[in-house]
Specification:
The structure holds five protein chains of five kinds. By secondary structure, chain A is α/β, with parallel strands linked by helices. Chain A is built from five helices and four strands, in the order βαβαβαβαα. Chain C is an all-alpha fold. Chain C has two domains: about 110 residues, Fumarate Reductase Iron-sulfur Protein, Chain B, domain 2, CATH 1.10.1060.10; about 80 residues, no CATH class. In chain C, about 65% of the residues lie in helices and about 0% in strands. The longest helix of chain C has 17 residues. Chain D is an alpha/beta fold. In chain D, a hairpin with a 7-residue loop joins β13 and β14. In chain D, about 55% of the residues are buried. The chains are: A alpha/beta, B alpha/beta, C mainly alpha, D alpha/beta, E alpha/beta. Chains in contact: A-B, A-D, B-D, C-D, C-E, D-E. Chains B and D meet through α10 of B and loops of D.
């Protein structure tokens, strides 16, 4: 093991396409980066932005959201709703200083095990490049030690 | 002997204090039923007087304002220790409110902006210091903390009373309730409850007509002319925070023709207020291609500010990534 | 000649298939070539207005690319005959960027000096030389130099046409030059460096 | 109350144990997840074996487990197995959670340490989640024994007949005036060359007269509500302007009608019909319809020739569209295909060069009942072609048009070659990319056409042009193509070109899909539940797809699918009730503010707004459990069983190992 | 007001000067405002792409980068030459489709202090702008001398409607924009199946026999269909069919006389301009007889001088050396 940074990533999959794609990648013994831990939802439309925020605030370095291809949703069109949410969520995250590349939406059909594996590895590499996010790691310290403002000049504040 | 009452003003604008006074004659009930022992804005009292009190001797403390510096933190802990019932009073204490937006920047930047920008004439770059030697000894100026924290992140809180400020009729109702409890006529709600507000959202109290919404364009309210006075504002493309904001204000802003900006915070059981607004706005977008969706989203110029105006410090992420860093 | 046969047989038996060729051409092509998607349907060869003069139809060339026949491909006259009419491009059911692949093959052939007829490569190089000097095309200089080099015997036959063009003011006697030639030169020099490193 | 959780780690032989240290995972879970309620963690060679299941059952009974986590393979494989085991031991099956450490860990990673660490995280996530699981019950609903079949082509007819013959009622709805579909337009059918009408007409008549079939032609489904077993369907029966009670189908009205109209549908634009018409002689039902757009009376207000001559007084100019409401338990969609519009391939000149024909035009041309009485002639109506070129893959296998292979065109091209050869003796060329003649007796037909002397050129035709380059080409159509086997470009002059146009989804397939709550593939065909193992069912229970609506196919396959869907429908009907997964969304009306943001989100119409109470409700029977509304509700008023916020948040925390840290004071 | 940035291309002031003159004659009646891109350079035609990829696209992109600096009132670049149009449009498209190409080209541009963000300009051909922006109605209104009785074949050439990554044209094979425009001028438009077939392009230079074959196909089919003239939108097509027609006739032993004019020349005539104002008379295959059908009298121009004696060559330009450009820069 090298001591390169190993990101921790939470992945969301839909039950019908992308989870099956990950199953297929498994059945085909395709090797991919082990950094993503998956959560199965029924549909990418189930993805509540809270889940992404929770994963990040829990310390995840990235979040991967996967679903059926547009137009192929098991629930007809709910992946479009996931897309809309995702695009707004990314904007909000950008305002929080989080690189947009840390949250990625990937379409993968049940047949695309290879794509799932490749996208996962690519995403891990991308997040690795960005470095750790480690949200709020210093929070506990904050509770005890307050930020001290150092005087930047020797001059006294006029009384 | 009358039960003791305290109220404190931490990092906030003071509007909450005014709101209490706005209860008009109800304020007399406070005086009639409580012994006010500590209320810096209304009466003179010293911290050491409070420090000298017995633990748990104050029945009710309304704490407004977030925790921005070590003084805020000290008093929060002190009042927690001395109070039976500690209420996070108002949006700042509940979720950070407008002062919480400071968490979008590192605190060093904020100090720099305040003391050394174009609008501040500070040629010698003089910054405040945390301690001074004066003839009487060493003087301490409160130290800013890295970020603004709602009261709950510092001490255990019994009840939350949202609003910027809380509506006076709600304050009056809460005062009535506590008096009844004192008299043994009523029970306190379970600890951790939100009081002085509804469980649902602003739409519940909003008289505007609502239909299924399909939005092709978001606009700021000043860019919509004319605004339909009877129709849901979101339906007119105006990002109104009402659908995700706790009820209790009688939909004041939408009734007055302005969009809800979210001061009552999230509805009951919601973990992250911003997430609810993200999902609310994105759910009404009527487009399927990333390009078109992005185009529509361009109509919300500051999405982070839009969904976290009052709630940033109380949200899951609490602050901008930069603000977490200790060093400047 | 038995000697020749031997050599050919040996070459055929020992030659390693150059499987990287397809990828190389693909990577050197502007846009996304889709070359690997070719299904050998022949739409390109059928559409080509000059297919009759080509030694291989574009389709065959793509099959040869796949087979790694580097030298044969780069010696082929096919890319040089391509008139960039884009008929094959819009008709190709697999969206192969055929015309651009032809440009790539020309460049590779020039680089490897494998073209068999120098007319076309020289024309291109002459043209490019003019552009790199003046920043603009210069028809008279180009035509004259080119015909002198490759069709000296045809030059007199072309004279009425050339004279007609000149007399009608349709061919400038002197070249035009852009103002900021130095800027263009810098850009092209940098581009050439980048070309080498990619 | 604290839950009592059991964790079971499967070796799956060496499938998991080869890469994951399963003993370590089990020990770790027992030690580190104790605070979460894990009271026992075991590993076992094959958890799915009967011994493995017994292990779980025994622990549930003896240790009083209230939650079970099995770390093994994908839930799609063995979730049911372990749920059943729990049920047998008296534990609600939905309190079992599977942690996939095979498909997602051991099979896709190689480093044992890394894989073991990930397996622990996955187990940790599952433990946190399972604590938030709630007992659920399957939902049972009764099945209405009536069935709706939409589309009266051969697939729909077959499906309707199978169900009707089993003794159940069928509503067969057809948009056109007659059932029969595309097959009624054909002359011969490959590879046996049966006369299409001869084999189809008896089926049409049977469907038209079957006591268990209500035939609704000239009708369209306009609304579908409900769910499997209990669909409520609205059908618009368009006005025919003919009183069906009185009409005898004598045909006098058609004879007398003075208005001739080009027949774009049945005759593919090659022939004419009247303004009042039955599309063809054997139409079922035999009542004509009046084409309001073209009828002189409707346009000018006078004429009524048909009314004057009708012997039974069946003409009724005042007839109105009628809305029918029916209840059915299952729906079969057999809505068929549209022919690819060959004008889009402008290099083939269809629409510009008169003697370029589409396949459907040629079907009518070669049909004895068609506009030329079966004479194969050029568009001038008299000249018999001496050379005919048949172009395959028109609009198919082409990224500029449709990506897919249309399946039938190769055989269709061969059939045309045979017919041209037989009727005219002309020289026939077939231009193809690949000959695809799979299935019984198909390649034999190819052999037969080869024997007949048809010429085959392997190459996708580049263009059909009338720009001649020499005398031989003058006045003819020149097919320019690379003969890829010869490696040369060829220009072949012919008199007639037939484009073997591909099939494509109906223009309104997307809307129809939406109406019935099923999805379309990227190409636009209806999506089946499983492409191999469940080809006629859809993701929406109780809705089946057959024939070309599901994808391009020939007549034998369409018929087979029609029958297959019927078997599935009969299976459902005979079960009398159906169990639905209890993954559903519901609204807490106390929290719902009636903002109506969720109202536009449900493609299954499960969400309704109660105007009086100003709250939204979700019909659990219609809800498919996707959870989109749960995620969307800005008030947090909608919750979903099986995948609740609490479950997922807990799983996130578990995966991030947050459940290991001590609780903060 | 229709405002555009103009990329004229090298041929517009030499071989296709008739195109430029006639374009200048119609801007005023159609209220077109064309602002020339400052210091534009050659687009490399079809030649540079065949030598070096990145230099070729950098050469093209310099023009885009220059144009991008002039986008105060419009972001549409108009190119009257089909080859220029194709190169500019294609560079813009490929820089987006292959971001690595875009990045490299920009790196090269940076050496000259320029940059171009692909997709920020609309590159369009002159006829596209005339048909779809100005509109056929406005053109019809400007017609004072309809071309009734003039039998023309519209010749679009190949580089205009193809590959058409921006989907601007009605069809790849038989686009109707030129037909519609000529009809709007009142001309008798003949359906011409070869309207987008190739004129031979640079083959006149490198494989004349091949080019003659292609020219022959076009001219003979136009002739067969009774055309009095061909009308084109492309300097290269005009040049090949006009200047090489005589050669082609020699080669095949034929005797075609098929004039070819730019569509803007016919527009000018229809708008009432004099032949001289729209560059008529500089074509080598005279349009005199054809235009007589619509009553336009083309003044007799001086016939080209008789062929010189065989031993006399054409005047030579100054000898060109590879480093000539650099030397000048040093000076």
């Amino acid at each position: 093991m090298t001591d390169q940074f190993e990101p921790t990533i939470i992945g969301f999959t839909c039950n019908w396409c992308s989870y099956r794609a990950s199953d297929l990648a498994g059945t085909a013994r395709m090797k991919y980066a082990p950094n993503v831990r998956l959560i199965r939802l029924m549909c990418s439309g189930r993805l509540d932005p809270t889940f992404v925020l929770r994963a990040l605030s829990d310390g995840a370095d990235g979040v991967m959201i996967t679903g059926c291809h547009p137009g192929e949703c098991h629930y007809i069109e709910q992946n479009y709703k996931a897309l809309r949410r995702y695009l707004l969520l990314k904007r909000v995250l950008a305002g929080m200083g989080i690189e947009p590349e840390r949250v990625k939406l990937v379409w993968a059909s049940a047949a695309e095990g290879a794509k799932f594996a490749a996208e996962t590895t690519a995403f891990v590499e991308e997040v690795r490049k960005l470095g750790p996010l480690s949200w709020g790691k210093d929070e506990s310290q904050d509770k005890h030690s307050s930020f001290i403002i150092q005087p930047s000049s020797e001059k006294e504040v006029p009384a | 002997m009358k039960p003791k009452f305290a109220m404190y003003w931490a990092a906030s604008c003071g509007g909450c204090e005014i709101a209490v006074l706005n209860t008009h004659e109800k304020i007399l009930d406070v005086d009639a039923n409580f012994d006010v022992v500590f209320w810096p804005v209304a009466m003179d009292a010293k911290y050491h007087d409070v420090e000298a009190m017995e633990d748990g001797s104050i029945l009710l403390t309304l704490f407004n304002g977030g925790i921005r510096n070590d003084e805020n933190e000290h008093i929060a802990k002190l009042l927690r220790q001395k109070s039976k019932i500690l209420v996070a009073f108002g949006s700042c204490a509940c979720e950070g409110c407008i002062p919480g937006l400071a968490n979008l920047s590192p605190v060093g930047d904020i100090v720099h902006t305040a003391f050394n920008t174009l609008t501040t004439d500070n040629p010698n770059e003089i910054y405040p210091r945390t301690s001074y030697d004066v003839p009487e000894g060493e003087l301490h100026i409160p130290t800013l903390s890295r970020m603004v924290r709602p009261l709950e992140q510092v001490v255990d809180v019994d009840y939350f009373m949202p609003g910027c400020p809380p509506e006076s009729h709600q304050i009056a109702a809460v005062i009535d309730l506590v008096i009844k409890v004192v008299k043994g006529e009523a029970e306190l709600p379970p600890k951790g409850s939100v009081i002085g507000a509804g469980d649902s959202t602003v739409c519940d109290e909003c008289p505007r007509a609502r239909n299924v919404k399909f939005i092709k364009e978001f606009k700021r309210i000043q860019d919509v002319a004319p605004v339909d006075p009877a129709l849901c504002l979101l339906e007119q493309g105006i990002p109104c925070n009402g659908p995700a904001t706790r009820s209790g204000c009688n939909a004041r802003c939408p009734q007055a023709g302005a969009q809800c900006i979210g001061c009552y915070g999230p509805a009951e059981g919601v973990m992250d207020y911003g997430a609810r607004l993200i999902t609310a706005f994105s759910s009404v977008i009527d487009a399927n291609t990333p390009e078109e969706i992005d185009h529509i989203l361009d109509g919300i110029p500051d999405p982070t500010g839009q969904v976290y105006r009052f709630n940033l410090a109380g949200s899951l992420l609490k602050a901008n990534k930069e603000a977490w860093k200790v060093e400047r | 000649m038995p000697h020749m046969t031997d050599e050919r047989v040996r070459a055929g038996m020992t030659r390693e298939e150059d499987l990287s060729l397809l990828n190389e051409v693909s990577m050197k092509t502007a846009g996304v070539s889709h070359l690997e998607m070719c299904i050998q349907c022949g739409t390109c060869g059928g559409s080509c207005p000059v297919a009759a003069d080509m030694d291989h139809t574009p389709r065959m060339l793509f099959a040869m690319l796949r087979a790694g026949m580097r030298e044969e491909v780069l010696r082929s006259n096919t890319p040089w005959l391509c008139v960039s009419c884009y008929h094959c491009v819009v008709r190709c059911p697999q969206e192969v960027h055929i015309a651009d692949v032809m440009y790539t093959l020309k460049g590779m052939a020039i680089h490897a000096k494998l073209y068999t007829d120098s007319t076309a490569p020289h024309f291109s190089q002459t043209f490019v030389g003019m552009v790199e000097t003046f920043g603009r095309g210069y028809e008279l200089g180009l035509a004259t130099r080119h015909y002198l080099r490759h069709f000296p015997l045809r030059l007199p036959g072309m004279m009425p046409m050339g004279l007609g063009m000149i007399s009608k003011g349709r061919m400038a006697i002197t070249p035009k030059r852009i103002k900021h030639m130095d800027q263009l030169t810098k850009i092209l020099d940098r581009a050439k460096e980048l070309e080498l490193t990619s | 109350m604290t839950e009592r959780v059991g964790v079971y780690v499967c070796h799956c032989g060496s499938n998991i144990a080869g890469t994951v240290d399963v003993v370590d995972v089990a020990n770790w879970a027992a030690e580190k997840l104790g605070r979460q309620g894990v009271i026992i963690a075991r590993e076992y060679k094959f958890m799915c074996s009967s011994l493995g299941q017994e292990l779980i059952e025994k622990d549930i009974k003896e240790l009083g487990l209230t939650r079970v986590v099995v770390a093994a393979c994908s839930p799609h494989l063995h979730e049911k197995t372990f749920r059943t085991a729990a049920k047998n031991a008296g534990l609600n099956p939905y309190l079992v959670e599977l942690a996939s450490i095979r498909e997602q860990v051991s099979w896709v990673h190689s480093d044992k340490a890394v894989a073991t660490a990930k397996a622990k995280a996955v187990v940790s996530g599952a433990v946190s989640r399972v604590i938030e699981n709630r007992p659920l019950e399957e939902i049972k609903v009764p099945i209405n024994p009536n069935t709706l079949v939409v589309g009266g082509g051969i697939a729909g007819i077959q499906s309707a007949l199978e169900i009707a013959n089993a003794g159940f009622h069928v509503y067969l709805v057809e948009r056109e005036p007659s059932i029969g579909g595309h097959m009624a337009q054909f002359d011969k059918t490959f590879p046996t060359l049966d006369c299409s009408a001869c084999i189809l007409t008896p089926r049409m008549v049977e469907a038209g007269t079957h006591p268990n079939i209500t035939l609704l032609t000239w009708s369209e489904v306009t609304n579908v509500a409900g769910y499997v077993g209990n669909f409520h369907v609205t059908i618009k029966k368009k006005a025919r302007f003919i009183n069906e009670e009185l009409c005898t189908g004598c045909g006098i009205c058609q004879e007398k009608c003075p208005k001739k109209v080009i027949d774009d549908v049945y005759e593919a634009g090659l022939g004419y019909r009247k303004a009042v018409y039955t599309p063809f002689a054997q139409a079922v039902p035999n009542f004509p319809v009046m084409d309001k757009e073209n009828c002189t009376y409707f346009i000018k207000g006078t004429c009524k020739a048909c009314e004057k001559f009708c012997p039974t007084g069946a003409i009724d100019f005042n007839q109105q569209d009628e809305m029918l409401h029916i209840d059915v338990g299952n729906i079969v969609l057999a809505t068929g295909y549209d022919l690819f519009d060959a004008r889009r391939v402008s290099n083939y000149g269809y629409g510009r060069l008169p003697n370029v024909f589409t396949s459907l035009e040629f079907e009518r041309l070669s049909n004895a009942a068609g506009p030329t009485a079966g004479n194969i002639v050029l568009r001038d109506g008299k000249t018999v072609p001496k050379n005919v070129g048949i172009i395959h893959c028109v609009g198919s296998r082409d990224k500029n048009f449709n990506n897919y292979c249309s399946v039938i065109c190769c055989m269709q091209g061969l059939k045309f070659a045979h017919l041209v050869h037989e009727r005219t003796g002309a020289t026939v060329y077939n231009f193809y990319i690949d000959m695809r003649t799979a299935y019984k007796a198909y390649d034999e037909f190819y052999q037969r056409v080869l024997e007949e002397g048809t010429l085959f050129v392997r190459g996708k035709v580049a263009e059909v042009t009338d720009a001649a380059r020499n005398e031989r080409e003058k006045g003819r159509l020149i097919i320019q193509v690379e003969d890829t086997l010869a490696g040369k470009q060829r220009r072949i002059p012919v008199d007639m070109v037939i484009l073997s146009s591909g099939l494509q989804p109906r223009a309104d397939a997307k809307e129809v899909g939406k109406l019935f709550g099923i999805s379309c593939s990227m190409d636009g065909w209806f999506t089946e539940k499983h492409p191999k193992l469940d080809p006629v069912a859809t993701m929406t229970e109780g809705i089946y797809i057959v024939g070309c609506a599901q994808g391009p196919k020939d007549i034998p396959s369409s018929v087979a699918q029609g029958a297959a869907a019927s078997a599935r429908v009969l299976d459902k009907i005979l079960q009398k009730e159906v169990a639905l997964e209890p993954i559903k969304a519901s609204v807490d009306s106390a929290l719902c503010s009636g903002c109506r943001i969720c109202n536009g989100l449900c493609p299954f119409n499960a969400i309704t707004f109660i105007e009086d109470d100003k709250v939204t409700e979700i019909n659990p029977a219609l809800c498919q459990g996707c959870g989109t509304c749960v995620a969307a509700c800005p008030a947090g008023a909608i919750s979903g069983t099986g995948f609740s916020n609490e479950q997922i948040i807990a799983q996130i925390d578990g995966l991030m190992m947050k459940n290991l840290e001590p609780v903060e004071a | 007001m229709n405002k555009y940035l103009l990329y004229p291309g090298c041929s517009m002031d030499s071989s296709a000067k008739a195109y430029m003159e006639s374009l200048n004659s119609i801007v005023e009646p159609l209220d077109l405002h064309l602002e020339e891109i400052e210091d534009w350079n050659c687009c490399g035609a079809t030649e540079y792409l065949g030598i070096n990829l990145i230099p070729a696209y950098s050469l093209i992109a310099r023009n885009l980068a220059l144009a991008a600096k002039q986008t105060d009132s419009t972001r549409t670049v108009v190119a009257p030459c089909s080859a220029c149009y194709l190169n500019l449009a294609k560079a813009d498209y490929y820089m987006q489709e292959r971001p690595t190409l875009g990045a490299k080209v920009n790196e090269a541009l940076a050496a000259g202090g320029l940059e171009y963000k692909a997709g920020m300009l609309d590159v369009r051909h002159l006829i596209d702008v005339l048909v779809y922006d100005v509109g056929l109605d406005a053109i019809r209104k400007a017609v004072t001398h309809p071309l009734s009785g003039l039998k023309v074949v519209p010749y679009m050439g190949c580089m205009l409607p193809r590959p058409d990554y921006q989907h601007r044209w009605s069809d790849h094979e038989h686009p109707t924009e030129l037909d519609d425009l000529l009809r709007a001028l009142g001309a008798d438009v003949i359906d011409y199946p070869l309207t987008t077939s190739c004129c031979g392009g640079h083959m006149t230079q490198i494989g004349p026999e091949t080019a003659f074959e292609l020219i022959h196909r076009l001219v003979s089919d136009a002739d067969e269909r009774g055309a009095q003239m061909m009308v084109t939108v492309c300097p290269m097509c005009q040049m090949n069919i006009d200047a090489y027609q005589n050669e082609m006739n020699h080669f095949f032993g034929t005797d075609f006389h098929m004039p070819i004019l730019f569509f803007t020349q016919l527009m000018g005539l229809a708008f009432g301009k004099e032949p001289g104002e729209v560059g008529i008379g500089v074509e080598l295959v005279s349009s005199r007889n054809a235009l007589a059908h619509i009553g336009v009298e083309v003044p007799v121009t001086q016939e080209p001088a008789a062929p010189r004696k065989k031993d006399e060559g054409l005047p030579m330009p100054r000898r060109w050396t590879k480093h000539e450009g650099k030397k000048e820069a040093v000076k």
